[in-house]
# Entry
Amino acid sequence: MPNSHLPDTSADTMDILSRLVLSPVAGLSPLISRLQQMSTAQFDELVSLAHSNHVVIRGMEAYRSLMLQANDREQVRCADNVIAAERARIAHAATYLQAICTVFANAGLDVTVIKTLDHWPDFGSDMDLYTNAAPDLVVALMQRQFDATIASRSWGDRLAGKWNFEIPGLPEAVEIHMCRLGQTGEHLTLAENIPARSRALEFEGKVFRVPSPSDRIMISTLQRMYRHFYFRLCDIVDSSGLVASGILDYEDLRRSAQQSGIWEGVATYLVLVSDYVWKYTGSHLLLPEFVRDAARFDGKVMYCGKNFLRVPIMPQSAELYRLQLLDTFRKGEISSGARLGLLPWLATAAAIGHKITGSDKGIW
# Structure
């Protein structure tokens, strides 16, 4: 498994990886000499960055193609080894994921795979699922069928309504969100509608229920704009591909996001994706004007830091939080508003804990 505590990666390595997964094939040839000049340590850094950004298969396949053009057999072999190892990991994890979903279905419980399969042919470092089933039923099912144990739950996990399960023989954790979404579990309606709006899709012979296109974008927005405040490169690739596919219903997306009080965040998320794509392709995504009008800031604020593409918390992300909080109280959703009100305190506690102990484990 990739190390989750990687050293800071240079903007230069992020630039190389971004070009590999975003630039048009015809524009990649100038990258060949740059790649051939990389040392072994730099190649390893590129692979580590690809792991932490969930683009190993896509990044290494592009790398391999360029090395084939250059007739550099040694580097082709290196890429093949990385790809083979990652495909083996994904195949193993997907078998477990299918088994989990089958057990839920046989028990008459809904389950939707969120985030994890958005990256296909890549795969996340854990498995994320959503269900409207009662937590006690899910916990009992996971323990009985998979001998699963529950990982220690942080304050944030308890507020968000999520459990992490560890299964013998499976390196990846299984994170199951139950009845709630959002950093403090403030989204009830959005969460409740996920299964009914989901659709069945096939992934190399295995069929899973995944969120609707609109829900995929909203879930990504919650994770990136309201929780982590950074993008993985896979978010850019996945969401730009979804937009380019033409299946995204923007009216449905706006309506659903407005109901959840996160429309400005969704619009901003899409504009940030579009701006980053433009940087490497020369073309913006074809977004409706009402999406761009609702965005609160653009890609100029993004920067590379600690292996990811980051968005400033102050004042940009804080403004999105303020708008969400106001909208929640305006709708009379007192319970959700109270949960959201805990977010700054939770973030402060996490920051203090990290400063004292070097980790925010148990809090965030």
